[in-house]
Design goal:
heterodimer; A: mainly beta; 7-stranded mixed β-sheet; 4-stranded antiparallel β-sheet; globular; B: mainly beta; 6-stranded mixed β-sheet; 5-stranded antiparallel β-sheet
Chain lengths: 115, 109
Amino acid sequence: ETGVTQTPRHLVMGMTNKKSLKCEQHLGHNAMYWYKQSAKKPLELMFVYNFKEQTENNSVPSRFSPECPNSSHLFLHLHTLQPEDSALYLCASSQGGGSGADTQYFGPGTRLTVL
Amino acid sequence: GQNIDQPTEMTATEGAIVQINCTYQTSGFNGLFWYQQHAGEAPTFLSYNVLDGLEEKGRFSSFLSRSKGYSYLLLKELQMKDSASYLCAVHNSNYQLIWGAGTKLIIKP
């Protein structure tokens, strides 16, 4: 396995379901990120973890709940979502440490559809 | 507020050259990134600029002018596989990455 992997690649869920997205990075990085990507909009940063500690939560609704058990794994737990939450959810990782050249590397994303 | 502006869509011909512009207004500046994203795939890193000037990487070059809050990505000898969205992003003074909405580049034979 190389780079950043995400599962599942596609997910269809009802508004009352509970599901989880998984991200794993094999780059030895210390920072991990969840983004939401909607059509024709900039990437929206949702959560940031540095060395397993959550350092950013950009006013994300509580129906999205992140979990970072170690530096290599990141989860996004979903419950009682709304149709407007349908989007591509991208995970990324970087070396961390707050330098300007801290390049983020992305997984392929999970295409989420909420019915 | 902070924002990144780039054209929504551009069309170019195979074999030609295209320049994708990006202007930014951010609270401080600590570097600018360009990413390529093919439809349904992950964004992939193309280039990083922190000092003024041109950075060349094969067919792709990226230019930065910090005084003008401006960057461009130059793609030469266009190939059909270059059809993708190109995302501009800036690290602000807090090292938050501010993203543009992306430019969809369509290459025609």
